[in-house]
Write a structure and sequence with these properties.
The complex is a heterodimer of chains A (441) and B (260). Chain A is built from eight helices and 19 strands. With 441 residues, chain A is an alpha/beta fold. Chain A has two domains: 222 residues, Rossmann fold (3-Layer(aba) Sandwich), CATH 3.40.50; 156 residues, Distorted Sandwich (Coagulation Factor XIII, Chain A, domain 1). The radius of gyration of chain A is 28 Å and the shape is globular. By secondary structure, chain B is mainly α. Chain B has one domain. Helix content of chain B is 73%, strand content 0%. Chain B is built from twelve helices and no strands. In chain B, helix 4 packs parallel to helix 7. Classes of the chains: A alpha/beta (441), B mainly alpha (260). The interface between A and B is medium-sized, with 30 and 29 residues.
Chain lengths: 441, 260
């Protein structure tokens, strides 16, 4: 069999009015329909297309990530695949046994023991009693719960529950595995174990559909990805590429939204100082439309209007990555830099030399604070446009961590020497980071 | 529908696992455990016996009132406890229904099976009662029992599947069901014999399949006679309800997950 899953022009419509559940609303609805009889029926308002003309297919051993904002239709695709709901239009083919990593403990009964729940959950996933018995030890081993297997599940921690759930769902060795953002619960070693397990399944030919907001996991598991937006495929391609497109799109959207609130908020505050805009530029102050290199120096310039003399104030600048991670925070307070602000306009510049961030997209955000650095004196932060950084790796999913230090590697080797635990390889990395803060007005 | 049934049989492991889950979960952390299956009908019969032999005497021929009512209360309890359980079964497990596919009827059917066990346990006491009251035992009648039980199960499944499916869309069903069961109790020959029903009303009376079922149990086990034509009416009504209920359930099954 060369094809596991095929979506052909699949659309799914939800009727928002269907959930009416009280008598008055049913009567009202009925009356409306009666009154409208003969006229054109106005149903479009109540209809909502969760998915529109989705096409993709999946072969054995392929792994596909579904990426998108909440409500983009990711879960609907999983539901259609799992045969929980039917498409409004289009055709879905799926061949092979399907298993799903469902919501934390959804198939578990809290009063039953781990052992009883393994049988129950296995049966829900389509295994016979004998099949479960054969895999029982493996499941218990994997979940690391041997000690607690006869304890009711209600006494388990959430991490233990998800471990048991994953162990059961993955021991089936299904041909299609759906994973819906459940692994976030376990601790890091268990997450890694799950990742190994999933990769093992892929090698054996399992096709995987993976929904996650964690791009590290997506990148670790999936080769292909679909970016869903408002129920439609916005972009489809390699996971790396799709993540990039997704981020780019997210930036633009956020920038638009921010611009809108900016207009809205202008002048409705009585603060004495206002950040007009924040720009990120090269160290010589030149504007840049392309990406920065992680090896070069950049400057973040905060343009402000001060409506009266403020005396001594402080500034702080954050750099935030596209996935929401705050990468660094620069504060005049910590760097023992003093800013004296008079009435008028000015620019505060902070230079990072070199930038050192890994590949990815970022924005900078700036605040002014009072002289004790304890209270914001700008009613809202100044925010830069998005800027992209090109590091050694292709994207931040290629590597992990936040920054790329300047490194020097050395290796000395001693063939005759005794083995020792730490000294047979010396890896040295020297970190040279100089960040100079040069405020100016 | 036949293909649906074979699919259900293929997933019988899940059906048994879920039934076991219901039974174990019900009696977990309860001291009396299984004994509750007997306590409830026994207590009811005790009250009926006091009221309807001492206060408002009901003529039950030569059958002692406790035996007369217990033989009706046990199958009634089976019905009256199964239906609400089945009705709740889908809504209570919506998390599961919305996330993974398995034949949905497993949930209500397993609720019924768990109550069937209670029914069997409670029926044991009937034998004890008949021995205590020194009643004749008609062994030949026992061959009818599987038939009567099957009719009752068809009735419960038909109604239960319908209620369970409707309850997903309209939660009023649960309240309506409780009310309906209260009325149904008096429309069935549980505390009174069929002979007290006016002759001209009897043909309509037996349209209630529970009337036929209860009367058949009494005929077969207490009177030592074959059940009459009325049981055929019950079988027809119950069979029709089962077919319709199951058909309806399968028809709306795929809308469950959309409603959550």
């Amino acid at each position: 069999m060369t094809l596991r899953v095929k979506f052909e022009n699949v659309s799914k419509q939800y009727r928002l009015g269907l959930t009416r559940s009280s008598l008055p609303s049913i009567l009202a609805h009925g009356a409306q329909r009666l009154l409208r009889r003969g006229g054109p029926e106005n149903v479009s308002q109540r209809d909502f297309w969760a998915l529109k003309e989705i096409n993709f297919d999946l072969h054995p051993g392929e792994s596909l990530a579904l990426i998108g904002r909440n409500g983009a239709g990711k879960t609907t695709i999983l539901k259609l695949l799992a045969n929980i709901t039917k498409p409004t239009n289009g055709k879905i083919e799926s061949h092979g046994q399907l298993s799903a990593l469902i919501e934390l403990g959804a198939g578990f009964h809290p009063d039953l023991t781990g052992r009883e729940n393994i049988y129950l959950n296995g049966a829900i996933l389509g295994l016979s009693r004998r099949q479960i018995s054969q895999r029982f030890d493996e499941i218990v081993d994997f979940s690391e719960l041997a000690q607690f297997i006869d304890t009711p599940v209600k006494r388990y921690s959430s991490g233990m529950t998800v471990r048991l759930g994953f162990a059961v769902a993955s021991c089936i060795e299904p041909e299609i595995l759906l994973v819906d953002e459940v692994l976030a619960v376990g601790d890091a070693p268990f997450q890694q174990k799950c990742m190994r397990r999933i990769r093992g399944l892929i090698e054996q030919g399992t096709s995987i559909i993976f929904v996650s907001h964690n791009f590290y996991l997506v990148q670790a598991v999936c080769e292909k990805a679909l970016y869903l937006k408002h129920g439609q495929i916005f972009h489809c391609g390699s996971a790396q590429e799709v993540i990039r497109v997704y981020e780019q799109d997210l930036h633009e959207e956020r920038a638009r939204k921010f611009a809108a609130t900016e207009e809205h908020l202008a002048f409705d505050d009585d603060s004495q100082i206002e950040i007009t805009y924040v720009e990120v530029c090269g160290s010589n102050g030149e504007q840049r439309s392309e990406h920065f290199s992680s090896r070069e120096a950049i400057s973040i310039r905060i343009h402000y209007n001060a409506y009266r003399a403020l005396g001594k104030i402080h500034a702080s600048v954050f750099i935030t990555r596209a996935d929401g991670l705050t990468c660094c925070m620069m504060r005049t307070m910590l760097d023992r830099v003093e800013l004296f602000v008079d009435r008028g306009c000015g620019i505060v510049t902070v230079t990072l030399e070199p930038l050192q961030l890994i590949s990815g997209s970022y924005f900078a955000e700036a605040w002014f604070l009072n002289e004790t650095d304890s209270m914001g004196i700008t009613s809202r932060p100044g925010r830069s446009d998005w800027f992209t950084v090109k590091g050694v790796g292709l994207s931040y999913t290629d590597t992990s961590g936040v920054f790329e230090p300047h490194t020097r590697w050395e290796h000395s080797h001693n063939q005759q020497g005794r083995f020792s635990s730490t000294n047979d390889m010396i890896l040295e990395s020297s970190v040279r980071a100089v960040v100079e803060n040069s405020p100016s007005c | 529908m036949l293909t649906d049934l074979t699919k259900l049989l293929r997933t019988s492991d899940l059906l048994w696992a879920w039934t076991g889950r219901n039974i174990r979960a019900r009696y977990q952390q309860s001291v009396l455990g299984w004994f509750w299956a007997i306590v409830q009908p026994a207590a009811q019969v005790m009250i009926f016996s006091i009221v309807f032999t001492l206060f408002v005497p009901v003529d039950t021929g030569n059958i002692p009132y406790p035996v007369f009512s217990y033989i009706a209360v046990v199958p009634w309890t089976f019905l009256a406890s199964s239906l609400p359980d089945m009705t709740d079964s889908l809504v209570a497990n919506m998390g599961l229904v919305g996330k993974i596919y398995f034949p949905r009827e497993i949930l209500p059917v397993a609720s019924m099976l768990a109550r069937l066990l209670d029914f069997v346990v409670a029926a044991m006491l009937l034998i004890v009662l008949m021995l205590i009251f020194n009643m004749p035992v008609f062994v030949f009648g026992w061959i009818f029992i599987p038939v009567i039980v099957a009719i009752q199960i068809a009735l419960i499944l038909g109604l239960g599947l319908m209620c369970a499916a409707l309850n997903v869309f309209f939660r009023d069903v649960r309240s309506l069901l409780v009310l309906g069961l209260q009325l149904w109790f008096y429309a069935s020959p549980i505390i009174y014999p069929v002979t007290m029903v006016p002759e001209h009303l009897r043909p309509f009376y037996f349209l209630n399949p529970m009337a036929g079922v209860i009367e058949a149990y009494r005929d077969v086990l207490l009177n030592g006679q074959m059940p009459g034509l009325y049981l055929a009416i019950s079988a027809l009504v119950a069979g029709a309800l089962f077919v319709f209920g199951y058909w309806f359930f399968k028809r709306v099954e795929f809308q469950f997950a959309d409603v959550v």
